Amino acid sequence: MAKKTQDLKPDTVLKNYWSGNEQFADLFNAVLFEGKQVIRPEELEDVDTEESSVLEHKDYAESIRASRDNICVLW
Question: How confident is the model at residue 30 (pLDDT cuts 50, 70, 90)?
Answer without folding.
Answer: very high
